[in-house]
Design goal:
This protein is mostly beta strands and 292 residues long. The protein has two helices and eleven strands. Strands 1, 2, 3, 4, 5, 6, 7, 8, 9, 10 and 11 form an eleven-stranded antiparallel beta sheet that branches. The chain starts with a helix and ends in a 7-residue tail after the last strand.
Length: 292
């Protein structure tokens, strides 16, 4: 009870002290009178009349991803070569080989995924490209020679099918106008095809055949022109020279004398593929922009 009396007395003294201090703070401030205080800011009449204008925004980024669809015509050349010694008698050497090339016009198509980097007067494009080509057919000459002098020959039919290439390319674009530009560059990578060759020396009895899946080094160089439809889409027309390294093809002579069938290895021969290509492409920058 004594404690409660002491607490009540302390509370009364505190309230009295606060009331006394509140009276010492002076009269209340009239906030409405603040509007009568003069401003020290003076507007610059020269800048006050300048209209507001929107800040320009460019959708062209320094680095942009792109997708390209490619199609065109491949003026291709498939060739066959190689010679192997099969028998030596004294100073004389008997060899068998093949030689020749065939030209054919093929369809080619594919696509590329790349990155365009803004550079003075244009841009640098780095991309990964994949393409395929129609199969091609040709004829080479198979021969038997003694000391390099042909004694007999026959036609060898060959086929290069399932042609493909996977390339890393570098292209330098140079703008001529806001809409048009040119470019040059090249690339390297890998490519291949299915090679088959055959000849019927004695139909049904003696034949020559060989086949192999060739995978080898590939390279290309090219030039072209670009027309920009807008900031994100452009059309591309260009020329490229494309080539694959030589591939090995094992060939055998087949003898069929029922009930005996014999395959005599003749060794590895070579094949090669190259092409001059006229390509058309559509390039789309930031193709997934609207998905974000």
């Amino acid at each position: 009870m004594r404690r409660m009396s002491m607490f009540g007395a302390a509370l009364v003294v505190t309230v009295a002290a606060v009331s006394a201090r509140g009276d010492e703070l002076g009269p209340a401030i009239d906030l409405a009178s603040l509007s009568e205080i003069g401003s020290t800011y003076e507007a610059d009449e020269a800048t006050a009349d300048i209209p507001f204008s929107d800040v320009a925004y460019s959708s062209t980024a320094p680095n942009r991803f792109y997708l390209t669809g490619i199609m065109g015509t491949s003026f291709a050349r498939g060739s066959a070569g190689g010679s192997n010694s099969i028998l030596s008698i004294g100073p004389d050497t008997l060899s068998i080989g093949q030689t020749g090339a065939s030209d054919q016009t093929l369809f080619t198509g594919g696509g590329a995924l790349g990155l365009a980097i803004d550079r003075p007067l244009g841009q640098l494009r780095m991309e990964v490209e994949g393409r395929w080509r129609d199969p091609m057919y040709g004829t080479a000459t198979g021969f038997i020679a003694v000391n390099g002098t042909p004694l007999a020959s026959t036609d060898l039919d060959f086929r290069l099918g399932s042609g493909w290439s996977a390339m890393t390319n570098f292209w330098r674009d140079v703008d001529i106008t806001e809409k048009c530009g040119v470019y040059a560059g090249g690339g390297f990578g890998a490519g291949g095809y299915e090679y088959q060759t055959s000849a019927a020396l004695i139909p049904g009895i003696v034949s020559i055949s060989g086949q192999n899946s060739v995978t080898t080094f590939a390279w290309q160089v090219g030039v072209g022109g670009v027309y920009k439809l807008n900031d994100r889409i452009e059309f591309d027309a260009g020329y490229r020279f494309f080539a694959l390294g030589d591939g090995d093809v094992p060939v055998a002579a087949n003898v069929n004398l029922p009930p005996v069938a014999i395959a005599l290895p003749l060794g590895n021969f070579s094949s090669a593929f190259s092409a001059s290509e006229l390509l058309f492409a559509v390039r789309i920058y930031e193709p997934f922009r609207n998905w974000r």
